[in-house]
Design goal:
The N and C termini lie far apart (42 Å). Strand 5 and strand 6 form a beta hairpin. This protein is globular. Strands 3-2-4-1-5-6 form a six-stranded mixed sheet, with helices on both faces. The chain is an alpha/beta fold. Helices cover 30% and strands 19% of the residues. The protein has a single domain, classed as Rossmann fold (3-Layer(aba) Sandwich).
Length: 169
């Protein structure tokens, strides 16, 4: 990667798509209030347990204010003993420039961001300089990134889809 000496040092970024929240078309209330389903709560708890067992320790978890994302983030924060912050920029429409500003504003060296699609899949593609990456509900991606962010400014460390999360013990 050209110019890395002029950039902010390497950091780890975790992207989490909220866990299962059912069918948006069947939800009668405002989309922002759509909660996790029982399956989603289980997914979020399993994700938190997996990350705790893998000794993943973000210094800050930042979540969308939408209920389903906040519930996912809260389950992970509880499992990891991490601080949690709500940021409206993760509610929808965040792009690479917005992500770079959000990261600068947090001051975190290993942030975890909990949000929604299509934003997270598009950010993953942009960061890696790829096309077609998918962040499924309840998935987590961990990347090494340099700031300021630009297309291809990240290396994927791992991507865990929800179906491989181990059961709770």
């Amino acid at each position: 990667m050209a110019g890395t000496l002029d950039r902010d040092p390497l950091r780890t970024l975790h992207l989490v798509r909220h866990a299962h929240a059912g069918d948006a078309g069947r939800w009668a209330g405002p989309d922002a209030t759509r909660p996790l389903t029982e399956h989603g709560h289980d997914q979020a708890a399993r994700l938190g347990a997996l990350l705790a067992g893998a000794d993943v320790r973000p210094d800050l978890i930042v979540t969308s204010p939408k209920v389903r994302a906040h519930q996912t983030a809260q389950a992970i924060a509880t499992a990891l003993g991490s601080d949690l912050r709500i940021d409206d920029r993760l509610a929808g429409g965040i792009d690479l420039d917005g992500l770079d500003r959000l990261l600068a504003d947090t001051g975190a060296r290993e942030p975890m961001l909990v949000g929604h699609d299509p934003d997270l899949s598009m950010l993953l593609d942009d960061l890696m300089g790829t096309v077609g990456q998918e962040m499924r509900k309840g998935a987590i991606a961990s990347l090494r990134v340099w700031r300021p962010l630009e297309p291809g400014a990240a290396m994927l460390r791992w991507l865990i889809p929800p179906e491989v999360l181990p059961p709770l013990r």
